[in-house]
């Protein structure tokens, strides 16, 4: 009997025979033909198989025995499993030996690894499997990307089945992040969700596909194996079913969360039915209407037009949607009080739009002037979602309200509207879906300020309903954040959907539109036209801050010109009767018309208002600061909240005017004003921050006016003073959440009825959380207002006890980020030093903030250390987005520090994480970082390909800032390749992009890129102008690094012009600045130029010192460009010392390194010097070859310095005037030039020195360059 091991050996060796004979009997000569073996091999195989009893001879040939057939089948199965395991090895590596995985899951599986060149493919495979699945069984240790929960909800909502087992950590995460989606799954009868102790490997069965998912230790998806074999799918389904049955049933808990939300929000459907519903539905909405802006009952204060009231203005019993700002536009909404003057001084209310008091904005379309609102209505009616984009104060909100009114009046269908000052952050996505899909007609949803985090979830709802032709969304968005998707609070899926939204932009005013406004204002106010439209438009564009929308500035001037006084400080409030719009007001029109010029621009008026309130008795300044801050924050009913400043027990502590001075210190000596004092202060603000309505109530002006007010205040008052003023006012408002006595005082002050106070009492914690977020949100949206909040160490805003614990650590984080984004690096450092995070996520963000500050200062080693700490903390906190951001920061710091290998490694890892979480903008940024690193390493065409893909991604998502970044980097790459025309075009487009989004840091970098292009061409004056402008920006924003860069460019330009003294002064100043920052690689660049200056001075000792210092600074961070530059200067020094052999060796190395890296400018310079070295050695053919190559390359890349150097040397050699020319055989040189003449020299002039002199003079920097307008040093 054959031993088992021998039997297995026979089967292994002769498997092909066994399998062939299993199909049918064959004779030996037939086996030779069938298997391609020799006859001797067939004889040996048959003998061996017969001896083992695996085949038997019969009359018609040899046939496999039963034992042979069974063993062959089992061995083939073993090989199949082995093949499957081998193919999946990389995917299986993270799993321990004890993990229970059946080989069946790998049967015929395709495997995908999260690695180059397609690191996000595993996520795509998972998403493809889940996208349209009707039945899903999944066991997950974590959520590989957020969309998984949404996919599961869709499967369940479509009537499918879902079995889901989650590891405990993933379950806890899901209840916080995806309770809405998983609650919808849990409520379905055929769906189950369970929590289990652990899930070793992810297992998914989706319809006919089975997936095995493996993860690295940090939670990153490592890889996926996908199989459509029935046994693989069956095993996956069984594995998940067993886990679900063994785990803890989570259905009830998730459904309870969902029921709690439903109970809290019941009444939504009734509200959606509008005013035509039953009496019960009207009653359900009545308490909500009581809290509106006074349109229904005349009570309260409305800001920015007061559509429905803002945070703090709602009544009791509100549904989740109404609490979060969504309301129906119906007859009742449109029936409030309207004022023809209202839209001239604040955002129009719905009744004012409906009454025709709003001028319909127009734009030119196909040669005709069309209504913007009408065009939007037409597009929305076709089922296309739209976004209306424009700068603040350009009239976006008014157009949106016009669209809503026209839609409702046309009978197309219901309208649900959320104003920019809507209310609670929007999260009731299911409620909104139900409302808009269950009503009759074509439902329009309008969301103002959709880029605000509190409204951004609406994008997700719109995306999910995009395939419905009976629901349309209109979004209003501020231009700057909308054009920079990286900063948008949108998920990757919503960012992709954003590309499908039609973008309409508010057009700039033209003379025709201004003329229409002039006539409209005259008609509304009963005054004569105020000014010549063309002159008025020129004045608006010349005199007002370009950050402010032209429309806001224009209307401001028109209102002043009517004599209404709405923008004249204090005037309206002190006029007899107080109400605007009387005949007496209109009679002043001619006198007011002179005020419409530049001297009465919006900026000037705001500055006057700031001066006025500071010169008024206390508490005017405190009330003004509070009103404007709450207006920008979107916190409504500021009149009521202003009385929170009254701190005495009966509202009488202190005097009405105070005894202190007119500044913050005076206010401190009289900290508690009286009720009458606050009332008089509010009256003084009429005509500036407040507008009085016909019913005697107030509403706030456009929030951009308030932003300008706060900016001017920050400029005029010392930072500690303004921070104390803001802290005192805001703290007293927030104290309302804790103190019933304060709330009672406010009720008495306003006459008893205070809906805002009612709302605070219903849920003090929720109101405190909303208000804290809103107040700090002002500085997060406008970082230049960071001084309002102090420096963390002396922050004066006290949070109330009612404020939720999870919010208490956020203000220091927000303030620190404000200072970083504002470019105030000292302020950012002070804020970060004082911040004491309470959890890992906060600690990680703090370290990333330190890294950002250090990187911007050029302290790259410190930056890398901080980013590495941030990475560890983000990983521990499970924050993948934060982890990617920290890794990208480290990649950038490494790149700036010259450590391109580390930059490449970090950029690649950041790309993998970005792909894993499905973030296209983060992918684009990481690709750009990888391209930058490759550019520093080798300069191959892979660099351009990385930039191309990154640019395509940025463009696809309308990321203006990101696209500008790519162009800035691409300009550098193009310049190094010698394509100066393309480099200049690209750099100018980058500059335009940065100026569009207001990034002054990178604006300076683009100017320096343009300076380098000009210098390469020999245009010293232009190079100096660009570098001087960059230096001025660097000084303004306080960037020592960019100032040092600019100084080095100025020094390099002076060196090109031959002004060695000036060059040394600028370069030494740059080196001092870089040395203070510890930027060794940048110091090396400047030191190398100083070394070349020393060579040109004839000071070889200083030159050698500089060269050695450069080498020590570069250390192991020397890329090909730096090595090539260093060897080139070494060669020039050797040549100056008369050591032609050493010069040739160094310069040959320089040429080789420059060519390998694609550094064309360095190559051209080195070739010119190498030609000179060849001449010194008497090698005429080599001299001709090198100098000709330098001339040709120099002309191709417009390199003035190389052209002049090579042409001068050739002219001198041909004329016999060059040093060492006696060593060169002139005839040999001429013969070599005739054999391979320079491209720029006619063939008949190749031996004529005058031809080369002409070329050199044409490119030589002349006296104009030397006399360029250099800025002063110091």
Low-confidence stretches: 259-318, 543-547, 564-600, 651-670
The largest sheet, given as strand count, sense and whether it forms a barrel, is: 8 strands, mixed
Q: CATH topology of the domain at 303-338 and 362-505, anyone?
A: Rossmann fold
Helix content: 55-70%
The separation of the N and C termini measures 100 Å
CATH architecture of the domain at 303-338 and 362-505: 3-Layer(aba) Sandwich
Mean pLDDT: 78
CATH homologous superfamily identity of the domain at 303-338 and 362-505:
P-loop containing nucleotide triphosphate hydrolases
- Please give the radius of gyration in angstroms: 38 Å
Count of β-strands:
21
**Helix-strand makeup class:** alpha/beta
Region (Disordered): 253-302, 569-602, 647-676
Pfam family, one: TPR_12
Keywords: Coiled coil
Biased composition (Low complexity): 581-590
Summed up, what is this model?
Residues 651-664 have a biased composition (Gly residues). With 1274 residues, this protein is α/β, with parallel strands linked by helices. The protein contains 64 helices and 21 strands.
Give an overview in words.
Residues 853-880 form a coiled coil. Residues 253-302, 569-602, 647-676 are annotated as: Disordered. This is Tetratricopeptide repeat protein. Residues 581-590 have a biased composition (Low complexity). The protein has 1274 residues and is an alpha/beta fold. Among the domains are: 4-86, Arc Repressor Mutant, subunit A (Orthogonal Bundle); 88-263, Endonuclease, Chain A; 303-338 and 362-505, P-loop containing nucleotide triphosphate hydrolases (Rossmann fold, 3-Layer(aba) Sandwich), CATH 3.40.50; 804-878, Serine Threonine Protein Phosphatase 5, Tetratricopeptide repeat (Alpha Horseshoe), CATH 1.25.40; 1119-1274, Serine Threonine Protein Phosphatase 5, Tetratricopeptide repeat (Alpha Horseshoe). 60% of the residues lie in helices and 8% in strands. It has 64 helices and 21 strands. The strands form 5 sheets. Strands 3-9-8-7-4-5-6-10 form an 8-stranded mixed beta sheet, with helices on both faces. Strands 12-16-17-18-15-19 form a 6-stranded mixed beta sheet. The radius of gyration is 38 Å and the shape is flat.
